[in-house]
Amino acid sequence: MRVSGMAKGAAIALASFCFGCVSTSDEQSVALQPGQFPAIGVVDERFQSYNVEMAEVVGARFWAPYNADGSVPADRYQARTPLDLRGEVRLQNLARALGPAYMRLSGTWANGTYFQDDDRAPPATAPTDGVLMREQWAGVVHFADVVDAEIVTSFAADAAARDTDGVWSPDRARRLIRYTRSLGGNIAAIETLNEPTLGPGSRLPPGYDAADFAQDNVALSNLIEQEAPGTLLVGPSAANETGDYLPRRFVPPLDTENLLSAEPRTRFDVFSYHVYTSTSRRCRQSDVIAADGLTEEWLGVTERVHNHYAALRDRFTPDAPIWVTEIGEASCGGDPWAATFVDTFRYVDNAGRLAKLGAAAFFHNTLAASDYALIDDRTLEPRPSYWAAVLWRRLMGTTVLDAGAWQPGLHLYAHCLRGEAGGVALIAINLDQANSASIRLPVGAQRYTLSADDLESVHVRLNGDVLTMADDELPDLAAAEIRAGAALLQPATITFFALPQAANAACH
After folding, report:
1. Which end of the chain is more exposed for a tag (fewer CB within 10 A), N or C?
2. What is the pTM of this model?
3. Domain 26-41+401-507 in this protein, CATH class
4. Mean pLDDT of 217-231
C-alpha cells in the first residue's frame, strides 16, 4: 500500500508554541458548541485495552528488532525471555494507569501453546510452539489483579490439541480455567482461537474448515457452560480479509462469512476482528514512510475494515458488541516508526473513530512487545502513544458525542468528560504539518497538547515539556488553563480539551 507521500520526518517547530493563546483570526476558527453535542453511543468502561502476547508469557520466538539501519534482520524472529509479570513493578505502574482495561493473552502463538498443569519441568520437546507453566500463568493472574485488568484469552487449537479425528479436546482448556479459579482469578472472555481465517498460518491442522470451526465453538460453549458460567464467548477473531493493507494477491484460506454460516451456527456474546493499517517490512517489502501516517487514506483503513466486519456482525450475531481484539500500526511487529510520535495520530484517531462507529472496545497490540507496543520492552520506557492512552483514560468517558463534521486535516472527537457531570472531553487532531488550525470554544478549558520535535521522535511533549518517567512513577500530566475563545492548534499536534463547564445535558 502506498499513500500520498510527504517529506519524511518533517520538523515541527516548538519555539512559537503558546498553549494559552487564542487564534489571531477568529473568523478562521471552527466554532464549536460542546454543550450541544448529541450523544451517539456508549463504549465499554474498558474501551481502551491491550494485548500481552502468549509468546511473551512463555518466552517463545517473537518478532526480532530491526537492525540499526532499519533493515530487517536475517532471522525476523528472536527468542524471548519469559515476561516477569509478577516482578516488573514499573510495567505494573504503567499498565495500572490504563485501567480498568481488558488484557488479552492470545496471538498466533497461543494457538499452539501447551498448558502444563503441574510444577514439573517442561518436556524437553514440547508438542506445540511453547509450554505455559503454572508459575507463568499465576503471574498473569497477579498482574491482572494489580493493574485492574480483566483477562481475555484463547486456547491451543493446533493438531496437538485434537484427537485422531481432528476433534478439539477441551481438557487443557478446562485445566487452565480451573487453575485460574484456584488462584482467585477469573477469565472474563474466551476467543475460540486466534485468526482462524489464516488457516495453517494460525497453526491450524491441514484441511481445517468452517465445519471444524463450528464444532470447535460447540465444544468451547459447552466447556464455558460447565466450568465458567458468565464468561463471554468471543469470535470469530478474523483478520486479513479486506485487502486494505495486504498485497491484493493475498486470499485468506478461510473467510468469515463461511465460518459463521457453518452449522451449527455460533451466536457469539461478542463479535471480534483484527485490523492493522499495514503489514510491516518484516513480512513484505513496503514503501510506506512515516509521514504517510498523517494522511486521510492511512487513517481511513480502520474505518473501511470496521464497516466490513460490522456488516457481518449485523448478519450473523446482531446486537453483539464489537471488540477489535488486535489493532496496531502494522502486522508482523510494526514498522520502525510505529514506536515514534507519528503513530500517536493513528492511535488517537483510531480510538475516536472506532467509538463513533460503535465498537465497544479495542485492544492495542501490544502493551510491551515489539515496535508497535505502547511501552518499549527492553527499557520499559513509555512510547509517545502511551501518553495519549493515559490522557484518553483520564478524560474520555463512556458516552460518545458527535463533535460534528471534520474539517480538512482537522479531526474532532468528543465524549462526556470522565467524572464531571455535564462536562465534555474534546480531542482536536491537526494533521497538517505546515499550517496551524483554530477552534473556538464558548467556555474555558484545561488543555493538554501533545507534540514532538520531529514526527519520528521517540519523545513527546505535553504543553511544551518532554514527558519522562522518574523512579518508576508517572509524572503529573498538568493542564494549561485557557479562556473561552479561539484556541490555536499548532501543526502536527494532538490536543485534548477538558470542558467541565460545557453543560451538556447528555453528560448528566
Report:
1. C
2. 0.93
3. mainly beta
4. 97
